[in-house]
Amino acid sequence: MKREIYDEDHEAFRSSVREFLDRSVVPHVEQHAADKALPREFWLEAGKQGFLGLEVPEEYGGAAAGDYRFNAVLLEELSKVNAALSSCVGIHADIVTPYLVELTTEEQRRRWLPGVASGELLTAIGMTEPSGGSDLAALKTSAVRDGDGWVINGSKTFITNGYSADLVVVAARTSPEKKAKGITLFGVSTSAEGFSRGRKLDKVGQDESDTAELFFENVRVTDDDIVGELDQGFIHMMQNLPQERLGCAISNLAHAQQILVETLQYTKDRKAFGQGIGSFQHNKFLLAELFTQVDVTQAYVDQCVVAHTNGELSAVDAAKAKWWTSQVQNEILDHCVQLHGGYGFMNEYRVARAWRDARVSKIWAGSNEIMKELIGRDLGL
């Protein structure tokens, strides 16, 4: 079914993204996986092409697209290469950037945004902690007032871009007695004294992504490093999570669809018992189900994209999109592995890597169980 949410400008932008990926990324994906990171050259080139500043105002070097559909196109095309690519770029350009655009002072924007748009200042967001997981209100990292500044102590884990980031938006508890209402966001430079990183975490999938633990030992920051309002960090995070979850949904579906298309071709080319394996009734019916599942899910995700572009996407609808697409993605890719037979279990095949890469999507950005809890509460349960 023809998608109606994009116009000629969006499709022209898609073509430029594809050209960039074919030229500057696809030939190097094996090296990215071996290095467990995207090189700074990638970020600088992406910045030069204008892909990192879609939400950054023009006066700070961005494109000021003013249309979330461009973000969606970018995430779709990145996801077709691999899931880690959309994850890393998404964190920087689609998740952290809104905090730095919408919640900052003029001085902070001048300090941070030009580098964000150019790829010279790589960002990450420090929410998740070793003991907390999806329970952001229970975080333990603290920021204690000390004279005219603050001293941060604590740790974060599973931080995408954590090993290479230059700036981390860190959630810290500033008023413990207020619980969820006592959390503040700080922009912390990774060159700050007392900041350190653990090793690159050895993950099941998404090898191309540099994921790390971050440690804060008496890291000093000032009021000028506060992002947003004091003690309003939890509210700021809740307001920004719908875009993060929508970005996950867009990426989940585009990733699954690409591998499904490649699997369809494989079932036409692979012969067994004298015929293409896709022509056997079970496989034919299965593929019919999977392609239908993609198309029906795409219709809902597209409506969420339109709603968010118009400033109307609710947290509950974003939660629905996130949990459903991650479930659909994992189901589709599991079937794709099965259709590849033994080859589907070999890391040299894209389907195997995609299958591994997808599993975390049911956990991050709020686990699927948390998404269902949010939806259930909205039902009055």
> Which bin fits the share of residues in helices?
40-55%
Content-based structural category: alpha+beta
The radius of gyration over CA amounts to 21 Å
SSE succession: HHHHHHEEEEEEEEHEEHHHH
Could you describe the largest sheet, including whether it forms a barrel? 4 strands, mixed
Order the strands across the largest sheet as they lie in space.
1-4-5-8
The total of beta strands comes to 10
What characteristic shape results from the CA principal axes? globular
Task: Tell me about this structure.
It is globular, with a radius of gyration of 21 Å. It is 50% helix and 15% strand. The chain is an alpha+beta fold and 381 residues long. Helix 7 packs parallel to helix 9 (315-340). It is built from 11 helices and 10 strands. The model has no long low-confidence stretch (mean pLDDT 96). A hairpin with a 2-residue loop joins strand 9 and strand 10 (275-276). The strands form 3 sheets. A 4-stranded mixed β-sheet has the order 1-4-5-8, covered by helices on one side. A 4-stranded antiparallel β-sheet has the order 2-3-7-6, covered by helices on one side. It has a two-stranded antiparallel sheet with strand order 9-10.
